[in-house]
Amino acid sequence: MTNELYSAPTGDAYRNIARDEWFLSRVGDDGLILYFYINDNAVIIGKNQNPWRECALDAMKRDGVQLVRRRSGGGAVWHDRGNLNFSFIAGQNRYDKEKQHRLILEAVRSLGIPCEFSGRNDLLAGGKKFSGNAYCTVGTKHLHHGTLLVSSDLSGVARYLTPDPRKMSAKGVSSVRSRVTTLAGFIPGLTVDDVKSAVIAAFEKRYGALDLLSGDLENDRDFARLTAEMRSDERVYGHTPAFDAEIDLRCSFGGVQILLSVKEGVVSFVKTYTDANDVLLPSRISALLTGVRYDDNALGAALRAEGKDDTGEIARAIADRKSVN
Predict the structure, then answer these.
(1) Mean pLDDT across the chain
(2) Which of 79, 98, 124, 264 shows a CA-CA span of 20 to 30 A to 57?
(3) What distance, in Å, lies between the first and last C-alpha atoms of the chain?
(4) What is the rounded average pLDDT of the residues 231-257?
(5) Within this chain, do residues 164 and 288 fall inside the same structural domain, yes or no?
(6) Model confidence pLDDT, tens digit, residues 152-192
């Protein structure tokens, strides 16, 4: 078994997020990598999110804010130099999501800050979120990465993120900024290096000593190719086809926007955007709805036929809505 540590030398969010995927492709079944990075100003969106809907793109372009699409699901997050990002990249014999969450909580508590796990993937202190987490699995290899808001400028959240107002309403709050906090708000002067050291200490207490990853990681040819892909418009923005109808829903597991192309009354193409953690949800919806008659009852029946909780909830939401746009 191996425990390895790597800290990114750059604030380039494209390179840093690409390295998550690069490590994921290389970790062995008995390997566990703890990876840290700090991005210059950036918005990181989930694999299946619609950037035109989630982000203030004009403001980001004006202010030089990076826009990066990660491989994992979940929602959009704000990164700056006051945010410490961590990743656990593990083979099948080492991955334990709950243990990893406890490790982060233990690290933060060791600093004297009471905190807890809440909801789908959030860590809270004083009832407010300081860490969001997302996950990805490729074959037998797993990625769990998250944010730690240490001393971030939270005004960036309000300037560059444009969340669905129904999400705020469901949580009983008026804005994203009102429900997030920084760890430095509990301990003035706390730095990202302080938190990083606490996470490393908690890791070594649970897993044993860490070895520094060696080799010329920054100049690897495959890593360069992956970084170029990460910067491409195709990766960042994706492709939104012309569509005839939109189903826009808020579910317990996240927002769902389903775009439908309809030919002769039958669904011919489906594109789904979502901040759900399940990265396969869009492909499942597409398989269920393609070829189905464009009618609320038929769409709902097709979704219920899968027998899964999330698509069943979407079916109920379709039945409850007043009309299809």
Answers:
(1) 91
(2) 124
(3) 54
(4) 89
(5) no
(6) 999 999 999 986 655 544 444 344 545 899 999 999 999 99
Identify the CA nearest to 37 among candidates 148, 203, 177.
Answer: 148
User: What is the structure's pLDDT at 178?
Assistant: 58
Q: Residue 55 is part of which domain span? A: 2-237
How many folded domains does the chain comprise? 2
**How far does Cα 74 stand from its chain's mean position?**
4
Q: Which two structure tokens, joined as six digits, stand for 145?
A: 């990465």
Paired with 170 in beta bridges are none
Which residue type, as a one-letter code, is found at position 97?
Answer: K
Higher pLDDT, residue 180 or 218: 180
At 2, list the tokens: 């191996």
How far, in Å, CA of 164 to CA of 279, rounded?
19
Distance CA 289, CA 296 (A): 11
Same domain, 67 and 132: yes
Do the Cβ atoms of 75 and 157 come closer than 8 Å? no
Q: What percent of the chain stands above pLDDT 90?
A: 83
More confident residue, 238 or 324: 238
Q: How confident is the model at residue 219 (pLDDT cuts 50, 70, 90)?
A: confident
Q: Looking at residue 130, which CATH number applies to its domain?
A: 3.30.930.10
Question: Sign of dihedral through CA atoms 242, 254, 169, 130?
Answer: negative
> How far is Cα 199 from Cα 181, in angstroms, rounded to an integer?
19
The gap from C-alpha 212 to its chain's centroid, in whole angstroms, comes to: 26
Q: The pTM is what? A: 0.84
Place of tokens 């979502």: 274
In contact, 100 and 161? CB cutoff 8 Å: no
- Strand 266-274: give its sheet, edge to edge: 245-251, 254-263, 266-274
Q: Are 13 and 44 in contact (CB under 8 A)?
A: yes
Burial of 183 (0-12, 13-18, 19+ CB in 10 A): buried
